């Protein structure tokens, strides 16, 4: 059995028999440790860290620089740091609760545990669709980003809808890899791809005299330390920054496939520290040099030649991003459908039909949503406000209060900590309502002023300047 364990963790992973014995003492894990069928429990903590990195460091980094214009460089950096630390904290809340209740495969399962046997289905009915919808919207952003890359590389050689459809097929096939451990190897390539592409962009924008999208003659760079063009503009920007590191709800199903779920904090801390530092550095440099003249996605901000180079290198990362998001959503539905069935970990026809139906079905839904909201940044923003604010802030606040009810009647500092988690839930509710309103208003404005065409349009929005450059 030890031959199945990766060499890099051989000294930290107990025997599979020992793990199984521990598993049977309390609530059973979602996936059995088995020698027959599909063994999902194969993810080591270093591989989990890479999966976490690829989940977060994906489409979000391409929308942050434009968001900085709306609130300013200093404010943007502070918001990035604040949300990075906050999302890391709520990630520990979710991971700790999952390990206390190892039968939980998703945030929706946690809501069921807290709601009790009677309220489980009623409360779960509210949040279970949100889990899938959130990641389907993210998959749509991944498909949208991939189609933008194809447009850039081919100089709009075909209708954008066709490029999106091709992206859908590629993303769905990649997402159909059944275990996170195997998908983790693809994650390495995807992460290095998108990270290298963004790094090239950062270097490129510092080597030109003026932003590529700026008009000839005198122009306003539009660089501000603190700034807000409007309420809905600032809310869209804040929500965009929030969602860039708010994907911790997707870490829960990864933890369920770890060999040692108790090691999840090692992966979480390594991931969040790296992602937050990279976001602040990259976004600050791009905004400082491009100012108001940032495209969405940001890879087109350094001119046509660098744009092709960045998209050529980052194409794998964009595909893998869509694949990861589709995989998370599909895995949730797959487990929901086949849980407690022999088909969950067998290689039966029912197993494969269900799995492929989930991956291709949800990727298709993401394709439709990406075409309905063809501007990349707005798709990211509405995903953050409508789905991730409840999943990443409201639910973790509830989880903490569920685990610490005695703090409400405890000492003064304990009451203060309890009150802070109440405020965390209220912050999530504010971002959900305010961010959704602002995102919808921005989308309506973009349609009305001709910034974007209609749904399922062949228009190429890969060079759209979202920061308001057209008005200066």
TrEMBL record:
Transmembrane segments: 48-65, 71-90, 133-154, 160-178, 185-205, 225-255, 267-289, 309-328, 349-369, 375-401, 422-440
Membrane-topology descriptor: Multi-pass membrane protein
Phylogenetic lineage: Eukaryota, Fungi, Dikarya, Ascomycota, Pezizomycotina
UniProt name for this protein: Amino acid transporter transmembrane domain-containing protein
Molecular function as annotated in GO: L-amino acid transmembrane transporter activity
Species: Knufia peltigerae
A family per Pfam: Aa_trans
Superkingdom to which the source organism belongs: Eukaryota
Keywords of the record: Membrane, Transmembrane, Transmembrane helix
Domain Amino acid transporter transmembrane: 42-437
Family to which this protein belongs: Belongs to the amino acid/polyamine transporter 2 family.
One GO cellular component term: membrane
Compartment(s) of residence: Membrane
Signal peptide segment: none
